[in-house]
Amino acid sequence: MKSKILGKEVELFAKKLKEYKVLIDTDIEQYSKQIKKSTLQNYGAHSRIATDAYLKILARGGKRIRGALAMVGYEMMGGKNKDMILIAARALEMIHAYLLIMDDIQDRSLTRRGGPTAHVDLALYHQVKHLSGNADHFGISLALNAMGIGNHAAQVLVANLDAPEDLRLKALSILNQSIIITAHGQTSDIMNEVNGPVSMRDVENVLEWKTAHYTFLNPITFGMVLAGADCEATDAVRDYALNAGRAFQITDDILGTFGHEFTSGKSPLDDMREGKRTVLTLYALEHAEKADKNFLIQMLGNQNLTQAEFDRCKDILIETGAYEFAVSQADVSIDKAITSLTKQNQNWQKDSLDFLIGLAQFLKGRSS
Description:
Blueprint: H1 2-43, H2 45-59, H3 65-76, H4 82-107, E1 111-112, E2 115-116, H5 118-128, H6 135-159, H7 165-194, H8 200-226, H9 231-236, H10 238-258, H11 261-264, H12 270-274, H13 279-287, H14 290-299, H15 307-319, H16 322-342, H17 350-364
Antiparallel strand pairs: 1-2
């Protein structure tokens, strides 16, 4: 009986998420048309090159989970201004696109969700047009401009939301504080790749700072605050958000290695080539036999990693129990997230609460 209930919750979550995604995708498509037109009119064809590269990444938005969670947080507190919260969701997705461009540059990724990354797309433009100078430098330079434009355009949207001034300011503060924390998480992630011995605490910091705050706590509390939530209400969702975010990143790392590019949005070899330290790789390094450990160390950060070498790395992750351990860690966090909601006595809308529970249950099957 329990499994049927959980299955129903996931099914309802998936249906509702799809509804949010349709709304957000339609809104972003209309907004992008306006931006393309105004950019050309106000700044000329050259500026359209950078703007279009950004909008391509924005259009490939995945599940729109961050925008959806902002809408859920708003509705959970009884918010009724659907037009306003949809614009707020658009802004969060724009922030996400900006951070994806940054992440792809830092990871030297070539693809993102079925297409070239922004800096690669712009480098290709340079090559096709036979422009002078270095194509890669051109691509990165304009990608940096593109992500800056997207970020600040999103900030303007939030600053002008149809909401009371005090709520707008509070939401804007939450958003920017979250980006600061995310940047520290990204810094820690990069340092973990190059800094020799890495502890599980180092990895846990990345899970919390880079993903949990940004992907879960920020959008939920962002939406809640726009509906008038006080600190007691936003504090009440914190345990859920941090645990669900931790599980989200662990399963994302599993999919990043064992999934397909269509599922994860990037090449499965990217994390290994970048030398990314995750719960998976750290556990494997701690439990592998000497020869396998040395091989894994050599492959982590190897930009010339071959498919055969990558397949051997995956075998080591399985043979050491790292894969199983990572799945179990995600499950523990998911259970904690759900339990934290059931302990709350907040007057939250049931549909929104069911969405959060369904999302956590969805994560249980995400790594398989």
